[in-house]
Design goal:
The chain has nine helices and seven strands, in the order βαβαβααβαβαβαβαα. With 196 residues, the chain is α/β, with parallel strands linked by helices.
Length: 196
C-alpha cells in the first residue's frame, strides 16, 4: 500500500492563515486522505490542517514582543526543521512570511523536498535582491496577482497565477443603500474610507 501523501505548510501570519485555508479545503476535497500539518491558525485548523504550532505563538510585532516569544519561535522553527529532515512530507508550502520561510526552503532543498511557495514575497515592492534566493530555493511559485506570474517567469521560475482569495469572498454586486443602512451611514452623502 502506498504511503499517505503529506504536505508541510507554514503560514506565520493571520493573512496567510486566511488565504491558505481555502487552498487546504480545496486539496482535502481533491484527496481527503492527504495529511497537511504545520504552523498556521484557526482557519487552517478548521480547514483540516494539523497545527504543530499556532502562528500567534511565533508571530511578533516589535522587539519587546519578540523577546517574550523567543523560546516559542525557536521551538517552532526547530520543529519545522525536524519535520523537513524527517523526509515524510512530499511537499513544503511556505505561505508569504519570507524572512522565515526562505530559510526553511533552503532546508527543504537540502532534503530533496519540493517547494511550492504560495503568496510570493513582494520583490516588486521591496528587497528585490531576494529573487536570487527564491530562484535557488523555490521550485514553483503560486501568485495572487497576475503581474507576479510574469515577473517570476521572466526571472526563470515556474509560476502560476492562482487568484486572490478575497476576490472570491467579496460579493460581485453590492446594494449600496443596504450597505449604508447596515453601517449607519447617511444615504447619498459622500463617504471617505481610510484603508491602512
Amino acid at each position: 500500500m502506498p504511503e499517505r501523501s503529506s504536505i508541510l505548510l507554514l503560514a506565520g501570519e493571520a493573512s496567510g492563515d486566511y488565504h491558505a485555508a481555502e487552498m487546504v479545503r480545496h486539496l482535502k476535497t481533491l484527496d481527503p486522505s492527504i495529511e497537511i500539518c504545520g504552523i498556521g491558525g484557526d482557519a487552517l485548523a478548521s480547514a483540516g490542517m494539523e497545527l504543530l504550532s499556532h502562528y500567534r505563538d511565533v508571530n511578533t510585532i516589535g522587539l519587546s514582543e519578540g523577546l517574550g516569544k523567543v523560546r516559542n519561535i525557536a521551538a517552532a522553527y526547530m520543529r519545522m526543521k525536524s519535520e523537513l529532515r524527517s523526509r515524510r512530507h512530499q511537499l513544503f508550502i511556505p505561505v508569504d512570511f519570507p524572512d522565515v520561510n526562505l530559510r526553511l526552503c533552503r532546508i527543504a532543498n537540502k532534503y530533496g523536498i519540493p517547494v511550492c511557495y504560495f503568496i510570493s514575497p513582494q520583490i516588486w515592492a521591496w528587497r528585490k535582491g531576494r529573487i536570487k534566493k527564491i530562484l535557488q530555493r523555490v521550485d514553483r511559485m503560486m501568485t495572487i496577482f497576475p503581474f507576479e506570474e510574469e515577473l517570476y517567469k521572466s526571472a526563470g521560475l515556474k509560476a502560476d497565477f492562482v487568484g486572490h482569495t478575497m476576490v472570491r469572498d467579496i460579493p460581485a454586486v453590492v446594494d449600496q443603500l443596504e450597505l449604508r443602512r447596515q453601517l449607519a451611514l447617511v444615504p447619498h452623502r459622500p463617504v471617505i474610507t481610510l484603508v491602512p
